[in-house]
Amino acid sequence: VQLQASGGGLVQAGGSLRLSCAASGMIFSIMGWYRQAPGRQRELVASIRYGGRTNYADSVKGRSTISRDSSKNTVYLQINSLKPEDTAVYYCNAQAPSRGIDYWGQGTQVTVSS
């Protein structure tokens, strides 16, 4: 199983970015994105279930969209109106809870300049 994340980078405040995470090896019932800023705990940004139900952190609700292309086994996270406090390393996560499976992709740095 492999999770390949991409799409991070340096963005100006107010801008947008889209992160992608392609999974290989199996289908996961839940895929999502977490982030970790320096000195802070890793936190959920957004997740999406195989059936399409989504969950967002309050900090990004209303300005982000998580989506899933099941044919490509890929999850996308679009964040608009980026703020400096969105700066963090973003991690893709994929779970199959009924099988006790929880995988993490490599982190991708997102830096929002003010």
What does this structure look like?
Helices cover 0% and strands 57% of the residues. By secondary structure, it is mainly beta. The protein starts with a strand and ends with a strand. Strands 2, 4, 5, 6, 9, 10 and 11 form a seven-stranded mixed β-sheet that branches. A four-stranded antiparallel β-sheet has the order 1-3-8-7, with no helix packed on it. Strand 7 and strand 8 form a beta hairpin. The model has no long low-confidence stretch (mean pLDDT 95).
Low-confidence stretches: none
- Cα radius of gyration in angstroms: 13 Å
Strand content: over 45%
Derived from helix and strand composition plus strand pairing, the structural class reads mainly beta
The profile of the biggest β sheet is: 7 strands, mixed
Tell me roughly what share of residues is in helical segments: under 10%
> What integer is the average pLDDT?
95
Please count the helical segments.
Answer: 0
- Following the backbone from N to C, one meets helices and strands in this order, namely EEEEEEEEEEE
Gap from first CA to last CA: 38 Å
Let me know the number of strands. Answer: 11
Q: What would you call the shape?
A: globular
How does the SSE layout of this entry go?
Blueprint: E1 2-6, E2 9-12, E3 17-24, E4 30-36, E5 43-49, E6 54-56, E7 64-69, E8 74-79, E9 88-96, E10 101-104, E11 108-113
Parallel strand pairs: 2-11
Antiparallel strand pairs: 1-3, 3-8, 4-5, 4-9, 5-6, 7-8, 9-10, 9-11
Main attributes of the structure:
about 110 residues, globular, single chain, seven-stranded mixed β-sheet, four-stranded antiparallel β-sheet, mainly beta, 11 strands
